[in-house]
């Protein structure tokens, strides 16, 4: 039985969205236990009844988006995120989910849950939408700003494993983010990483330029946290801008409104590919327990998808398999 602990105090739509998502999931996943950490009064205001597989751990303290992450995790001992992380560290829960302060989630993962033996630096791994609808797993998206080549090699392995086991990708294609596709291109980090990935047993497809990422050229994109965070936020801004521009154009005249009616089903399907709620949460891979960061604006659907990902993470024993693999890292 999977035990998932949810910090319901973080995120723009907290606690309503995470609580409702848990209630929806609990009604279908009767053998999964859900633990809600947060203000009990606000939690119970969402629903009059809770099933037997949902429990509440009360606290009114929370970590805000303006808090300095490490300091908040160390000082706010009764914060919902801290309590949730401690439950994972103590084995009382298998995985935590939060839509709160990203830096605090990373800090809680490192300081409270700890790393998988053999993993040098964990990585935040969100799925970025692509034009072909497959999505690409990006890591690192901001947890390790100054990475070395061995960090990137481990990121590639963890990303490939997660993509195959949880996302269902057969033999994931791994790409290295770079300024050119040639093997000799890039800075000292990418030049040192390329041969490590090339001689690995991963399906390495070489260097990938940023302009090709959204075309679906690879399933796993590896880079340091600084570059990854820039790419992620640029893609988010591009998606929002394109959607806004297309919608405003389609209502600019009678002719375009008429045309919009004709292509409405196709447009709906197209925009659905880039809907963040369908991609769930970003796993924090490399910590010694399940840890998922949901989008700050996660609605009920996004939370529901994230809960499903966390459940799969636990039931498929991804953590155990990763831990076992990294005990013999030289064979990877």
From TrEMBL:
Pfam families, A to Z: FA_synthesis (PF02504)
UniProt EC number: 2.3.1.274
GO cellular component: cytoplasm
Subcellular location: Cytoplasm
SUPFAM superfamilies: Isocitrate/Isopropylmalate dehydrogenase-like (SSF53659)
Reactions catalysed: a fatty acyl-[ACP] + phosphate = an acyl phosphate + holo-[ACP]
Keyword Acyltransferase: yes
Major enzyme class: transferase
Record keywords: Acyltransferase, Cytoplasm, Lipid biosynthesis, Lipid metabolism, Phospholipid biosynthesis, Phospholipid metabolism, Transferase
GO biological process, one term: phospholipid biosynthetic process
Any one GO molecular function term: phosphate:acyl-[acyl carrier protein] acyltransferase activity
Pathway the protein takes part in: Lipid metabolism; phospholipid metabolism
Function: Catalyzes the reversible formation of acyl-phosphate (acyl-PO(4)) from acyl-[acyl-carrier-protein] (acyl-ACP). This enzyme utilizes acyl-ACP as fatty acyl donor, but not acyl-CoA.
Subunit text: Homodimer. Probably interacts with PlsY.
PANTHER family referenced in this protein's UniProt entry, alphabetically: FATTY ACID/PHOSPHOLIPID SYNTHESIS PROTEIN PLSX, PHOSPHATE ACYLTRANSFERASE
Family indicated by similarity: Belongs to the PlsX family.
Protein name (Swiss-Prot/TrEMBL): Phosphate acyltransferase
Species, as recorded: Alicyclobacillus tolerans
């Amino acid at each position: 039985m999977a035990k998932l602990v949810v910090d319901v105090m973080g995120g723009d739509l907290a606690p309503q969205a995470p609580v409702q998502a848990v209630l929806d999931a609990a009604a279908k996943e009767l053998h999964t236990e859900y633990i809600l950490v947060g203000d009990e009064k606000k939690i119970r205001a969402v629903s009059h009844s809770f099933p037997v597989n949902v429990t509440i751990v009360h606290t009114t303290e929370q970590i805000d988006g303006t808090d300095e992450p490490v300091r908040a995790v160390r000082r706010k001992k009764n914060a919902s995120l801290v309590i949730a992380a401690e439950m994972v560290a103590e084995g009382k829960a298998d995985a935590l989910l939060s839509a709160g302060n990203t830096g605090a989630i990373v800090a809680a993962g490192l300081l409270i849950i700890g790393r998988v033996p053999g993993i040098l630096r964990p990585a935040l791994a969100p799925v970025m939408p692509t034009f072909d609808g497959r999505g690409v797993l990006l890591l690192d998206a901001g947890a390790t700003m100054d990475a070395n080549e061995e960090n990137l090699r481990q990121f590639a392995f963890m990303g490939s494993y997660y993509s195959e086991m949880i996302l269902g990708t057969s033999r994931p294609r791994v790409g290295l983010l770079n300024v050119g596709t040639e093997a000799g291109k890039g800075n000292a980090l990418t030049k040192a990483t390329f041969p490590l990935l090339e001689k690995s047993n991963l399906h390495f497809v070489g260097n990938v330029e940023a302009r090709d990422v959204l075309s679906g050229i690879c399933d796993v994109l590896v880079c340091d946290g600084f570059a990854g965070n820039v790419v992620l936020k640029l893609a988010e801004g591009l998606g929002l801008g394109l959607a806004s521009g297309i919608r405003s154009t389609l209502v600019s005249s009678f002719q375009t409104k008429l045309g919009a009616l004709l292509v409405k089903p196709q447009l709906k399907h197209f925009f659905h590919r880039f809907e963040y709620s369908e991609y769930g949460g970003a796993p924090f891979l490399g910590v010694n327990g399940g840890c998922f960061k949901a989008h700050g604006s996660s609605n009920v659907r996004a939370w529901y998808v994230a809960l499903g990902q966390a459940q799969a993470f636990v039931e498929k024993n991804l953590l155990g398999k990763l831990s076992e693999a990294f005990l013999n890292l030289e064979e990877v």
